[in-house]
Amino acid sequence: MVGRLDAGRLYAALDAQREASGLSWRQLAIEAGVSASLVSRMGNGHRPDLDGFIALVQWLGMPAETFMVWPEGLRDKRPRPSLEAQLAPLLRAEEDLGEDDQQHVLDVVGMTMRHLRAKNNKNKKTGD
C-alpha cells in the first residue's frame, strides 16, 4: 500500500475536538453522521471505512491529507498533480456551473496547459 491512514492521529483529533465542544462520543457520531460503533472501534485501533473517514474528516473541517502517512521519501518523489486534476474537484463543487460548463472550463484549461508545456519543452531544448 502506497499511502496509509494514521487512524490514531484521526482519533486523537476527534477526541480533542469532541472535548473542546463538550460532546460525548455518541453526540460526535450523531453530528458527524456515523455510527457510535464506528468511533468505538476506532478507539480500539480499528480504521474507519472510506465513507466513515470522509464524514469524520468533514466534521473536523480538516483536510483528509492531514491523516495520511507516506512511506519515507515517497511523498517527495511523487509528481505534483496537474492543474487540471487540481481544478476538477473545485469545478465540480461550483453549484453555479452545469456539467457542460465545468467540462468546458476543464477543456480550455487543459488546452492552455498543453500549449504552455509544449512551449516550455521547446524552450528547454533550444536553450531559450
Automatic annotation (TrEMBL):
Domain HTH cro/C1-type residues, every copy: 14-67
InterPro entries xref list: Cro/C1-type_HTH, Lambda_DNA-bd_dom_sf
Signal peptide per UniProt: none
Name of the featured protein: Helix-turn-helix transcriptional regulator
Source organism of the structure: Amycolatopsis acididurans
